[in-house]
From TrEMBL:
Keywords: Membrane, Transmembrane, Transmembrane helix. This is Delta fatty acid desaturase. One of its GO terms (cellular component) is membrane. GO terms for molecular function: oxidoreductase activity, acting on paired donors, with oxidation of a pair of donors resulting in the reduction of molecular oxygen to two molecules of water. It comes from Streptomyces griseoruber.
Length: 366
């Protein structure tokens, strides 16, 4: 059974069953392997890395050429998109989609992370836990109620800023994304205090080297006021792009709690959402629009995910497992609707007029 609407309501590698295993995922895995979709795509990644690196250089060259002109803000917007593409490359490298060997994957991921001011070790640890427990309220770090609340239980327990923001968080979601780029940097720095973080000295060196070079270039090329404007536009739009990449994937999908432990295939499929679209969507979202396939086969190169989609969708139909796929705008609508419902306990009940039904958080209650 497949669905075109979402229900209301990344460095781990999936299990590798033997050829004789009869689990639902094992049968799907054999179909994918037989289709040759797990092989590396060195030509594709060589072209993609070259293109993104070239655009990165072009963006900063434009800043240098335009220099003391407000047109430099256009370069800031352009570089915000380029930074997002670099983040997607770091994501693919961390999943070993680019290189088979761990060392090459970590080296390329760290280089990409350094280019955008992201602590690679911190992000890899966080993303690995997300893949292992997607949309699990207690185990998925992407559902930590640091600023937003993702369920009504979190809303009832919220204090401080999440409690203040939570009541209207659906309306504030996209404006708050302008802070996501800054949050990426701050979280990366804060993680350096964790002594269990591997290679934290290297990550810290790369992180602060990025900040130093970034600020030095801005202050060298631009007057102070324009440098501040550039930083605000660049980091703000970078945050919006990052948030827009990841919001359609799981937000608004079923949230697991407590001892909810579906098998691997259902855990990944039922908590993920695909976004329909063509090749342009694949480029803009870095293949993450095929989120179901990515979660089932994290090390599959992103250009193979579209081909895997047909096999995975048919397999889910045979099993009667919901396979959710929507358009991009619809995915945002479901995500925002879910956020609004999650914040309902924080909104005061509206007193009914002339004995009519009360409206609590937008839900009509007799």
């Amino acid at each position: 059974m497949t669905r075109d609407t979402a229900p209301t309501g990344d460095t781990a590698v999936g299990p590798r069953p033997s050829e004789t295993s009869g689990s639902d995922f094992a049968r799907l895995s054999r179909k994918i392997a037989d289709a040759g979709l797990l092989g590396r795509r060195p030509g594709y990644y060589a072209l993609r890395i070259t293109a993104v690196a070239g655009l990165y250089v072009v963006g900063w060259a434009a800043v240098a050429l335009v220099a003391d002109s407000w047109w430099t803000l256009a370069a800031a917007a352009f570089l915000a998109v380029v930074f997002g593409q670099v983040a997607l490359l770091a994501h693919d490298a961390a999943h070993r989609q680019v290189f088979r060997r761990r060392r090459a994957s970590e080296t390329s991921g760290r280089i990409a992370g350094a280019g955008i001011g992201m602590g690679y070790g911190w992000w890899q640890d966080k993303h690995t836990r997300h893949h292992a427990h997607p949309n699990h309220e207690e185990l998925d770090p992407d559902l930590d109620p640091n600023l937003l609340v993702w369920s009504q239980d979190q809303a009832r327990a919220a204090k401080g800023l999440p409690r203040l923001i939570g009541r209207w968080q659906a309306f504030l979601f996209f404006p708050l994304l302008t802070l996501e780029g800054f949050n990426l940097h701050v979280s990366s720095v804060k993680a350096l205090a964790n002594r269990s973080l591997k290679h934290r000295t290297l990550d810290g060196t790369l992180l602060f080297a990025h900040f130093a070079v970034y600020l030095a270039v801005l202050l060298w090329l631009l007057p102070p006021g324009m440098a501040i404007a550039f930083l605000a536009v660049h980091q703000g739009l970078f945050g919006v792009y990052l948030g827009s990449l990841f919001a359609p994937n799981h937000k608004g999908m079923p949230i697991l709690t407590g001892d909810d432990r579906p098998d691997f295939l259902r855990r990944q499929v039922l908590t993920s959402r695909n976004v329909r679209g063509g090749r342009l969507t694949d480029i803009a979202l870095g293949g993450l629009n095929h989120q179901i396939e990515h979660h089932l086969f994290p090390s599959m190169p992103s250009p193979n995910l579209r081909k895997a989609r047909t096999i995975v969708r048919r397999h889910c139909e045979e099993l009667g497992v919901d396979y959710v796929e929507t358009g991009l705008i619809t995915s945002y609508r479901h995500a925002l609707t879910s956020l609004h419902r999650a914040g309902a306990p924080l909104r005061p009940a509206r007193v009914p007029a002339q004995g009519g039904p009360a409206d609590i958080g937008g839900d009509r209650v007799p």
